[in-house]
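2024-03-11 09:14:02 INFO worker-7 job=invfold-0412 stage=load source=structure_tokens
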């Protein structure tokens, strides 16, 4: 077990002390950044929502995406309908080698069952005991995803947060024209609700919609990314080198240099990127 320090009240005010036998978090040897590419994926056998035993071994010879989730995780809720769409896309092109999806959740089984029924999950959802499987995979955040190859080894870095997992799913389940249009409209909605200035948001969404249109008629969207001097191509957008960075080429998102780019999203002013999510930095 590992903790930084626990606070105890003694005398006139709070003082910091260490509990005997506990190491500071920075000295812990527990892996917290996820398994590296090429690692053997740890085996598990866990009951699903219907009490059936699901094991990683039964997927040997097939690609599988393991999604670590939690019923109280906001980004996991955001991911849920996207998972349903991706799995539906998988069914339309299913072959013996089609990539599988398995969600490893935690918490109360009834909460997880309610979520699965509400969103219409057709893929297996298994419930780990606390963080036992997460510990084996070396990461304790949610949502995160691992792509496991036919040989039972991880094929890439762990995908952390909605944006990275969405990109992983897109690579595995190539979207058709209708799906690409739906994805684009969702991304446009996200940009319009972001903290970007309205003029900048409208400019970015204009490029996104134009890129989707060109893609639908067969013209490569990269044709839009011919940027003039002083600008850098970012998908179908051009970021101003003087005050912007390319945060997400997939969604053509440019971030102001005064903001933090976190998993393809521009964080709000004052926020930092923590475990793949924009979070407000606590004041000391």
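2024-03-11 09:14:09 INFO worker-7 stage=emit residues=284
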């Amino acid at each position: 077990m590992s903790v930084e320090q626990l606070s105890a009240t003694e005398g006139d005010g709070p003082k910091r002390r260490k509990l005997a036998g506990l190491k500071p978090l920075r000295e812990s040897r527990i892996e917290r950044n996820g398994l590296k590419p090429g690692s053997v994926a740890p085996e598990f056998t866990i009951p699903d929502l219907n009490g059936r035993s699901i094991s990683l071994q039964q997927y040997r010879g097939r690609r599988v995406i393991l999604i670590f989730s939690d019923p109280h995780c906001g980004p996991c809720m955001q991911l849920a309908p996207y998972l349903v769409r991706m799995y539906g896309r998988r069914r339309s092109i299913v072959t013996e080698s089609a990539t599988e999806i398995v969600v490893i959740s935690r918490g109360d089984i009834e909460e997880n069952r309610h979520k699965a029924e509400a969103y219409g999950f057709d893929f297996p959802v298994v419930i780990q005991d606390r963080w036992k499987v997460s510990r084996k995979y070396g990461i304790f955040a949610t949502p995160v995803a691992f792509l496991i190859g036919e040989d039972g080894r991880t094929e890439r870095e762990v995908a952390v947060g909605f944006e990275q997992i969405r990109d992983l799913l897109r690579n595995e389940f190539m979207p058709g024209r209708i799906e690409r249009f739906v994805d684009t409209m969702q991304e446009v909605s996200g940009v319009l609700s972001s903290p970007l200035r309205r003029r900048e948001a409208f400019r970015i969404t204009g490029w996104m919609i134009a890129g989707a249109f060109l893609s639908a008629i067969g013209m490569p969207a990269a044709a839009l990314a011919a940027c003039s001097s002083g600008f850098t191509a970012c998908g179908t957008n051009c970021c101003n080198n003087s005050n912007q960075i390319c945060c997400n080429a997939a969604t053509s998102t440019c971030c102001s240099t005064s903001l933090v780019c976190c998993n393809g999203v521009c964080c709000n002013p004052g926020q930092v990127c923590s475990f793949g999510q924009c979070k407000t930095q606590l004041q000391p």
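2024-03-11 09:14:09 INFO worker-7 stage=report msg="The chain has three domains: 1-30, 45-172, 177-280."
2024-03-11 09:14:10 INFO worker-7 job finished
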